[in-house]
Amino acid sequence: MARLLIPAVAIALFFLETEFSLFSPIEFSGENYYLVPRFLILYLIFLSIYYDRKKAMWYGLAFGVLNDIVYIDIIGLYTFLYPFICFIAGSTVKYIHQHLVVTTTLSLLLVALLEILLHQFFFLIGYTDIGFAEFLNQRLVPTMIANSIYLIMLGWTFKYLLEARVLEKANQSIL
Amino acid sequence: MPHFLSNKRLLMLLVGVILLVALISYTLSDRKKVSFPEQIIKDTVGLGQSFVAKPAGYVTGLINNVDELINTYEENKRLKSRLEEFGTLQAQVYELDSENKDLQKLLDKKSDLRSYDPIQADVIARNPDQWEEKLILNVGSKAGVKVNMAVLTTEGLVGKVIQATPYTSEVELLSTNNTNYRVSATISSKGKQARGLIEGYDAKRGELMLKRIDSKLKVKKGDKVTTSGLGGIFPKGVLIGEVTKVTTDDFGLTKLAYIKPAASFQMLDHVVIAKRQAVQVDGSDGDSTNKDLSNQGDDK
């Protein structure tokens, strides 16, 4: 059961991301604030920590390519970044305590890293001319707030689902 | 030190990086045609999105309604003050309209840059990372959508089509930072017209920049800006916005005007693609080829 749920959730989150971005940017006292939904990569980071790094990287690659083709039209950007983030997340498993609070913080830090890398890339190729301070105010901070709300709400569900899958697998290997 | 990467793995990593950089640099260049596998993927994902977009569209509609409800009182006051002018204006418009039609008939002028066939479209997704201002619509080339067509809401121009697959199309909004994005525009103040090109968006002011206006012509704050129809594909007379500030440009040769866009770029859920009825010329508008395409229409 959990086995089928894992990719299903990933696909659902992929679609939800684009729908939630329809609500952004939000105008507040004359300034635009961008909320970038990062549902999928947060889920993949959890997948990488609680389940399997290699699988998470494959998921990252597949959804990275999809994201690049459908939205960005620069193939290779998310294709690299998603597996890269999953790789880092999976590599930390040995060094950190797998408590939900710790993993949530770690995931949010990794998403911040992703955002910064993307800003640097788009700045480099001239798609944007906003400086780092503005990026921090208009994008990074609101994005992190929105995503932490999301993760606090759903993080435990992901953990529950992934642990159920690990159990399922363990039972199968016994049988 | 333990072997972190074996030789085989290192080689694979290197090849991967080279491939990636090659792919990025290839796809970064302005591609007008979408390759076939990309088309299939885009259409499939688009199909999924159009299902998910239904509830999302409902929620954006609801938020917009609440937003309107909050502003009702002020809006009502403002509209009442305008209502008196409206009656006389309407009479004038009818008169001018009928006169215009008669004169056109007299001249035997059939095609008009103004007229267009509207293609209704729903927004099914927005580029999630929002670095580029892109929307994805649920209609594509099967419905007659072509690259460079104008995209409007009831309030005014919002952007143009940059890519069309059979069942989806991609729109780049006016608020983009893309330097190759130009829209030919007309500023009309009392009786006189000035032309210019919309090039670039000032993110800090939240306003568009209209450049290359002849410095001899007078442009005032409050003048209305519409599309000129001279770009080849856009219809004429679509409202873009209102002039808020006029300065000279970097070199002091031409004028630069800041324009407050009439349409809001937020919470877009329903748009119209304008398919011009007059002959369409796919000129160098937005397509940075710099080729001379002005004589192609005659050859074909």
UniProtKB/TrEMBL annotation, chain A:
GO annotations of cellular component type: plasma membrane
InterPro entries: Cell_shape_determining_MreD (IPR007227)
Gene Ontology biological-process entries: regulation of cell shape
Keyword Cell membrane: yes
Localization annotation: Cell membrane
Lipid metabolism is among the record's keywords: no
Transmembrane segments: 33-51, 80-96, 108-128, 140-162
UniProt keywords, alphabetically: Cell membrane, Cell shape, Membrane, Transmembrane, Transmembrane helix
Organism domain of life: Bacteria
Membrane topology field: Multi-pass membrane protein
Family statement drawn from the similarity comment of this UniProt entry: Belongs to the MreD family.
Identification of the protein by name: Rod shape-determining protein MreD
Organism annotation: Kurthia sibirica
Gene: mreD
TrEMBL record, chain B:
GO aspect biological process, one term: regulation of cell shape
Gene3D superfamilies per the UniProt record, alphabetical: Rod shape-determining protein MreC, domain 1 (2.40.10.340), Rod shape-determining protein MreC, domain 2 (2.40.10.350), Single helix bin (1.20.5.490)
Record domain Rod shape-determining protein MreC beta-barrel core: where: 123-274
Keyword check for Aminoacyl-tRNA synthetase: no
Recorded GO CC terms: plasma membrane
Keyword Zinc-finger applies: no
Pfam families per UniProt: MreC
Signal peptide: none
Keyword tags: Cell shape
NCBIfam families: mreC
Protein task: Involved in formation and maintenance of cell shape.
Family assignment from sequence similarity: Belongs to the MreC family.
Protein name, UniProt field: Cell shape-determining protein MreC
